[in-house]
Amino acid sequence: MKSFRVYGEKFNAQWELDDNSAAAHEFSIRKKIVLVIFVMAFVIMIIGVMNLGWWFPQMAAEFVTLSILVMFIGGPMFVICLLLIFFVLGFVVPSSSGLAVLSMPIFAPLADTVGIPRWIIVAAYQFGQYAMLYIAPTGLVMATLQMLDMKMSHWFKFVWPMMVFTLVFGAILLSVCSVVFAV
Is 182 helix (H, G, I), strand (E, B) or coil? Predict the structure, then answer.
């Protein structure tokens, strides 16, 4: 009987089934707005299909648009801000290990506070820092450009699409991971 009690306590602790956890899961205005948008997505889709002749492209566009809106209202915006912070910090500290030592003791507990898994913060660090390494003048870029007798402006014209793609792809991937894996 004791093992059942211990298991029950672990189960309750894991899923927060005690009476004190009700305050932690309050139905805030942000959650209400997200729920309304979710329900309205289906209403808009039904009206679009029945009255406006929508098919898959229009329905997909609607769901993508409303998903982005929910992302901004619901808070996955946090990881995008971190991505941009790591991008800027990558200019100041071009060493990947140096930036990790500098920033992870700050941002890992912050991730715990916000409720985002730590591995998503590490992914934001990687996307942001490595996007900056395309143009960071303190890394190997300047030495390589000097050896090739190439101006930084020519290199920037060549590399900026890859840098923007890395940031946009990283932002999309991090947003999806935050929505899917955040507890």
Answer: coil
Q: Would you call 62 helix, strand, or coil by DSSP?
A: helix
Rounded Cα gap, residues 169 and 126, in angstroms: 12
Q: What angle do CA 109, 82, 67 make, to 5 degrees?
A: 110
What is the token pair recorded at 113? 């506070």
Strand ranges (DSSP E) for 59-168?
Answer: none
d(CA 99, CA 120): 16
Q: Tell the residue number behind the tokens 């971190």, with chain if given.
A: 82
Tell the residue number behind the tokens 């030592």, with chain if given.
101
- Over residues 80-126, the pLDDT tens digits come to 888 888 988 888 887 888 888 888 888 888 777 777 788 888 999 99
The H or E element spanning position 29 is: helix 29-51
What is each CA distance from 78 to 55, 85, 142, 166, 175, in whole angstroms?
A: 33, 11, 32, 18, 9
